[in-house]
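Progress narrative, Year 2. Work on Helix-turn-helix transcriptional regulator from Heyndrickxia oleronia advanced from sequence curation to structure prediction during this period.
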Amino acid sequence: MRTNNFSEQDKIIEKDSEVKEHTEDLKKIISIRIKELRKKRNNEDINNKWTQEFVANAIGISRSAYALYETGDNLPSIEVLLKLSELYGGISVDYLLGKQDHPFVDTDDIVNPEYNKFISLLNRLPEDKKEKYIYMLYGVVMKDELD
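Result:
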């Protein structure tokens, strides 16, 4: 019986460790992306200096709270991510979270919800399976074009 308890405890500890690791990775991704966006906007906007304080005031938080997001020491809430998305002209929250490579949603994706559903399912797969299915789909499309 005790071995089962230890086994269950080990699973919980392992899962907790995975969650912490994922959270740390997420903090790094977000910190890099928001810092890059702010610096890029600072270089483009001649009317405003896009400092940490400017961004923090624009989204209604303190500069020190925002600084913790940029350094990757704290994870922003969904509310903060949505405000940043709006501040930067409607960039995708998925971009801030590292789930997509481009800051803006392609309007073709919005028009075709089936495409979005497919991409969402594909993105949930492990990398090795994702690659496999992409090659399979590519083969089907190429065959269809040749017919």
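Residues 2-44 form the longest helix (43 residues). The radius of gyration is 21 Å.
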